[in-house]
Amino acid sequence: MAIGSRSGPALALALALCACVAAPARSQTGGPRPLSLEEAVERAAASSEVVQAARGGVTTARGQQIGARAERLPQVNSSLGYTRTVISQFAGAGGGGGGGGGGSPDTTQVPACPAYVPNPALPLEQRVALLEAAVLCPPGSGAPGGGLGGIDISRAGFGSTNAYSLGLSLSQSLYSGGRIGAQNRIAEASLTSAELEVTAQGAQLVVDVTEAYYDALLSARLLEIAEGSLAQAEETLRLSELGFQVGDKAEFDVLRARVARNNQRNAVLQTRSSRDLAFFTLKQLVDLPLDEPVQLTTPLTADASTAALTDWIPPAAGDTAAAARVTVLQAEQTVRIQEGQVAIARSQGRPNVSVVSNYGLTAYPQDLLPRRSDFADNLTVGLQVSVPVFDGGRVRGSVVQAQGGLEQARARLAQTREGAVLDARSRVEAVETALATFQSTAGSVEEAQRAYEVAQLRYQQGISTLIEVNDARIALDQAQADRARAARNLYVARVQLRLIRDLPLGAGGAASFGAAGTAGASSTGAGFGGATGAATGGSAAGARGGAAGAGAAGAARNQGTGPGR
Length: 565
Fold this sequence. Notes:
Helix content: 55-70%
Structural class: alpha+beta
Radius of gyration: 43 Å
């Protein structure tokens, strides 16, 4: 069931099984549809257009391989033809032949038609005259069978009204200068590269769905944080208004609390919009209606990402060796293809040897439909040799051009190998960094929650200002958001590392969801949405990160402009 498997039949079977899985219905109460991470990957694998396009490439490459192998086998062709002569140039010659337009032969008189018998003792002029008389003798005349030496020359087709031909031709290449072998090597390399592309697209699909799933979870968590902050702001405003009514608080505190509450309302609206966009992206990937509500059942608080995807991750997919990377293997196949192109270009200047044979049946019946006795057969066997003599340098130009492509392919292979080594290091480093960040946020939420409770208590007792309360609430929001982002980044980075062998180079940039915003939001309120899009290099996951982070960015920005800043 592993979508990253390099076995083409196994992948096809897995996708077929996925397509047959019945989609779970909604609950009896009409609530949202439960959706786990494993089910999301399963649905995406069954409906992914990208994977289907890659599988189509395998089919195309397999057809090319069949065509290349056919070049080694004999080529046999058959033909069937019928010709009717309307006007014949032999219509008036000898009064016979039945040609169209010349009328029927005169059968009332049967002229004598001597058969030609070679006699070297006769003079040359006399032998020529006898030969001409025998050749011009029509069928049915005095000679037995008529014609030359008793042969009916009407069977040669002169002036015949109807002509039938049946034929078989055979051609077998004996030597092609290396062209056929190069074509087969190219076809095999193309098929291998296409199968590797299916593997790469399958692994990338798992990563994309995982990122979209955790982006949706993160956006939902950020919305919970924003709504919690709004409830806290409402409570702070209520306490400020109550204190103002009894004379403990100034009107200025009430105004600042009301402004903070209004700003937080806007932040909730932005965060909800970002949450909806993240869920739309996930539904599109897993082929669900955009208006169908879903409930994500895989938690963001446990290491459930790799556990839920165990069936979709091959055992050896975490191999970080550069030689095992799909991208490197594809580059190696590209080198093989270019080597085959060089061999094909060189074969154009070498001889080509082939055996040809033709077998045919011809008939020239007087009636429309022929009889079996009307057919005469003919069989030929020959050897064809084609040797280029002078082509003006075309072959040399083709060879030089193919060699240039081979040099480029080899250079890209070396570059890909170097990039694979760096990519493996960066992915390992990304997991270590995400783990360290996740561990560092372990106690931040509890401490920030305790600090906010103390700040509220101090404000109620009149020994603190609203500025401290707002600062404590912002710190709590930031700690909760950092914890959720750190969990998301860690789980996505782990999945990418588990699938590193089959992933394209540099496909792990999206693991740092909101990393830049995490560092800057507490001090500048800039958030993390835009920074994430830049950090991911414009990838699809980066776009999702920017969209999901827009609401939290607005929340931090609005809080930062509130009272006490």
